[in-house]
Amino acid sequence: MMQKRTLYLSLLLVSCLLFFGFSYASAQSVTFQSKSVTRCSDVVLNITVDSPEELSAFEIVFEISGDFDGTPTVEFASGFTGLTNRFGPDFDGTYYRMAAMKADAGDVCVDANGGIVVGEISLHTADVCSGTVTVSGATVTGGCCDGVSASTGLVSCDLVGLATTIVDGVVTITNQTPTIACPGDITVHWGDVVEFDVTFDDADLTHGCEELDFTVSDGPGAIDGDGHYTWATGGDDVCGDSVTVRVTDKCGAYAECSLDICVYNDPPEIDHDPADTLFAVWDITLSGQVAADDPDGGPNALTYQLVSFDGETSYGSGFNLNAATGEWTWDIGHDADYAGDFTLCLKVSDGANVCDPCSPSNSDEACYAIHVTGFAITIEKVHDQIQGQNTTVGIYLDSAWINPVDLIGGFDFLIAYDASALNAISAEPGALIDDGDFEYFTYRFGANGNCGSGCPSGLLRVVGMRETNDGVLNEYHLSGPGELVKLHFYVSNDYNFEGSYAPIKFYWLDCGDNTLSDESGNWLYLGLQVFSFEGIEITDPNEYGYSGPADSCFDTVYTSEEVFKNAPLGAITFRNGGIDIIPVDEIDDRGDVNLNGVPYEIADAVVFTNYFIEGANAFTINYDGQKAATEINGDGIALTVADLVYLTRVIVGDALPLPKVNPAAFADFRMQG
User: How many domains does the chain have?
Assistant: First the structure.
């Protein structure tokens, strides 16, 4: 027992040597570990002793200060096995003392060359965004050595105090920046709700002292505290936006992620077959409706606009489009500018934003092919025709332009005339179809069948066809303008008709009269309007047969979608003509048989008497004029004995000259009772 106490006192004595005796050997150190750690984390710091000489004892005195929570703990390292006679840690929560020495002569010295971990400091860092914990060597006054100050020191195996360098430890507390990740780009239709969750993390979360805040730093929408993003899109949001979401920790450190959100629109669509053609004719108001549908019903009301139109628009109200409904009208005139093929392009839009590639279109466009057919057929008006002679009246195709679609393959004309004034002799092909250009041509007097007293006194039907079944292909294609038919008439010698107008008109008994056919035979063109030679349209339904075919005979608009039939088209403007019979007084006055300008004188009676003796040779000045002057008694027949008798009576004074007949005179009649 005495021996053990003596050994303990000797150890204590050696311990006190740490405070008083030093060897001035160098390269000894005590190092407190430094490291960088997170907030609110548990940290273990090593205390390392390094000495080239073996140690029999050491004493380490240090101070812990800075940003930590609670009281640090200090322990001898579990892997440190030498110097088993150990003291501490002691003092208080700020200063710490660790001492170890050989327990007895049988204990061995410690080889610390290269460094040996002898102790461990455990502490918990504070919840600070930036801070430090410092472990530094210290000198303290303790009770082990009768009030002598104690500090860090090492003792060699030879019991010599070794000069020791103390390396302070610094724990750097850092805030960990959060991380965030967004999903890939998103595409939605307007009106849908965009939703997604961000992926986020923060190393400080595991220590329980972190709080994260989510915000939308750029773009639309909102995000909640769990990182769930929402955006209820509307029509004005078409094309979308870029969205940036931010996560921020308590220390203000943040991270961001971004994505593009495409908000698309379904554009309206026009239901139209581009191969379709709309067929129309002259002098109508063509109307149409854009058949458009908007699959998603918005985001705005549909509006319509004209893209292009190559048709003439100077006639009437021109072209008009209702921007709100898509209804359109085109006032088609009746001249060559309005005949042919035209393209009308219209557009419908829902007014949505447009961007490429997200939502590149808000509209649809359709182009309508319009074919306008128009012909003008005119009966010639012949002037100053002398009675008792033959004259020729032409039927003309007046269209200045013929479209290849409208090439004429045949015609059927029914012509009415006053048989008391005119006598139809024959008909023959006009210059347009002469020389066999039309392989079939014929004419027929009278109506098709017996229409009784309701028919005009004179009717003539003329029919021509370009092709017949002769085995030879006709290479001729009719194009106007020009003469289709020559009509030959004899002008009545009834001088009651002198100075009058003998009309020659188109007449209708049924839908097939006064028609044209195209070369294919699929299209039949009927009369749309009928005009007098003065240009006055004949519209009175009481003028049966003269005002054109019935409205039920034809269409004025036709689309090629109607494949079940080819509609007859009202496409012809007819103009009537006739013959002006020259007044006798333009040839010579009645009774001026010798054409000397003095009527009813004796020389007139002499030359007229010579006619009955010599015949036509008596009229040596102008046969037609002298003949016309002999119609003296007003019976309409020239060159009669009755005319000579009446001439003689006027010369003698037994009768007065007859007044000139006025074919344009009018009379009013009233009935009473």
Answer: 5
